[in-house]
Write the C-alpha cells for this entry.
Amino acid sequence: MFRISDTVKHLIIINVLFFIASFAFKEPFYDLFAFHFPANDLFKPWQYVTHMFMHGYVYDNSLLQMSLMHIVFNMFGLWMFGSSVEELLGKQKFLFLYFSAGIGAALFSTGIDYLQFYPVYNTLTELGLSSNEIKSILTTGSYPSSLDAHISNVELSKFYGKYHSMAVGASGALYGVMVAFAMLQPKAKMGLLFLPIMIEARVFIPLILAADLFFGVFRIPGDNVGRFAHLGGALFGFIILWFWKRNQFKRWN
C-alpha cells in the first residue's frame, strides 16, 4: 500500500510542476487551466483535464496555506491509494480510471451548478431581459432594482457566483481511485487521523462520501470544497469498476 508506482510518481510530479507554474504565471495561468463554468467566456474544453493538475489559488497570498494543504492532501491520497489500485488494474486501466473520474467529477458538479444557474437565467429572460442585459449582470454584478420583486438577492448572488466559479484539484480523480480501492480491497484496514481506530475500506470510504453528501446539501458558509465534484468522481469510479468486475475489459492491460 505504501510503494509508489511509476505512474503515480509521474502524476505527482506533473501536479507539483503545475503548482510551481502557478506561482510564476499567477491569475492568467488559472484563466487558462482551471475549470470555468461552461457559460463563462473563460471556459475552454481542455479545462476538463487540466483542472486536475491545478491546486488552490496561489496568486492570492491569503489562500497560500490552504493551497499548500490542498495539494499535499491530494498527493498523499494519490500515493496512498493509487499505487495499490494500479498494481491490481494495470497502468492503462488505472490511467483510464483516473482521468475518467476527474472528467466525470467536473461534469457532475457542473450539472449541479446548472440546476441553480439556469432557473434564474430563464426567469430573467421571462422578465424581458435581453441576453446582453443578462451578460451585463453576470460581468458587473449589478442589476436593476426592479428585479428585487421577482428574484431574491441570494438567488442573484448564486447566479453571479456560479458564472464566475473555478474548480481546481485532483480530488475528483482521487475519489474515483479511492472507490476503486474499496471495491478491490474491501477488507483493507485504514486508520482515522488522530484516533487509534482501524476501519475497513468498505466502511471508511462510504463514510467519507456520506460526509461529502451531507456538507454538499447542507453547505456551511465559507466551505469552498467541491463536495459534488468529489461525489461525481466517486460515482464514475464506481461505474467503471463495476463494469470491469463484470469482465467487460477483461483483456485490456
User: Anything to note?
Assistant: The radius of gyration is 20 Å. The first strand starts at residue 35 and ends at 36. The CA atoms of residues 125 and 131 lie 8 Å apart. The beta strands are 35-36, 166-167, 189-192, 195-200.
